[in-house]
Amino acid sequence: MTLSPVSQMPRPSTWFVWHSHLIGPGAKVLDLACGEGRHSLAAAALGAAVVALERDESRLAGAREFAAERGLTVDWRVADLEGPWPDLGCFDAVLMFNYLDRARMPQVRDMVCPGGILMMETYLTAQRGLGWGPTSDDHLLRPGEIAHLAAPLTVRHGREVLEPVDAERWRAVASIVAVRK
């Protein structure tokens, strides 16, 4: 049995997998603070036109290599999201996983085209008690906060959960899919 390129990719978030049907071929997707590109690669495998921003060039190197080996096209861009953002226009889907910048949320929401979605997931303050992950209030959501950050986009689906990462670790996250009317 030959494995497909999707089965060999770094595993995207379960939240992304559950909602991947919202990203169709040709959709314009922006992945903010993409890290090593697991969500960018998954969206590209779905046929989306992906722009991926990350400040750490070394994190993008492996993603570029993986994409090239599998014939996936992603517009990988080095960008420090703490500085001025490039003018990118609007997207059918904006992805934010394990990244939180409350002050930039108006700009993030503005990048979602009419009819488009914001798919976001990051850690809750309860993560501190689990012994790993971010500990700063700047990087942790308070319970109920994610829907307020997405407003005035309309929440289609959201959750706050404690879920297993592997056999020994758990994570506390808030996730949302919100739509621009």
Summarize the structure in words:
- The protein is α/β, with parallel strands linked by helices and 181 residues long.
- Helices cover 22% and strands 31% of the residues.
- Helix 3 (57-69) links the parallel strand 2 and strand 3.
- It is globular and about 40 Å long.
Relevant terms:
181 residues, alpha/beta, 7 strands, globular, disordered N terminus
Summarize, please:
This protein is α/β, with parallel strands linked by helices and 181 residues long. The chain is built from 5 helices and 7 strands, in the order αβαβαββαβαββ. It has helices at 14-19, 38-45, 57-69, 105-110, 145-150, and strands spanning 28-32, 49-54, 74-78, 91-97, 112-123, 154-164, 170-179.
Pattern of helices and strands: HEHEHEEHEHEE
Question: Superfamily at the CATH H level?
Answer: Vaccinia Virus protein VP39
Q: Quickly give the structural class.
A: alpha/beta
What's the alpha carbon Rg, rounded to whole Å?
16 Å
Shape: globular
How far apart the termini lie comes to 44 Å
Numbering strands along the chain, what is their spatial order in the largest sheet? 3-2-1-4-5-7-6
Strand residue percentage: 25-35%
Question: Which segments are poorly predicted (pLDDT under 50) over 5 or more consecutive residues?
Answer: 1-7
Arithmetic mean pLDDT: 93
Could you name the CATH class?
Answer: Alpha Beta
Q: In terms of topology, how is this protein built?
A:
Blueprint: H1 14-19, E1 28-32, H2 38-45, E2 49-54, H3 57-69, E3 74-78, E4 91-97, H4 105-110, E5 112-123, H5 145-150, E6 154-164, E7 170-179
Parallel strand pairs: 1-2, 1-4, 2-3, 4-5
Antiparallel strand pairs: 5-7, 6-7
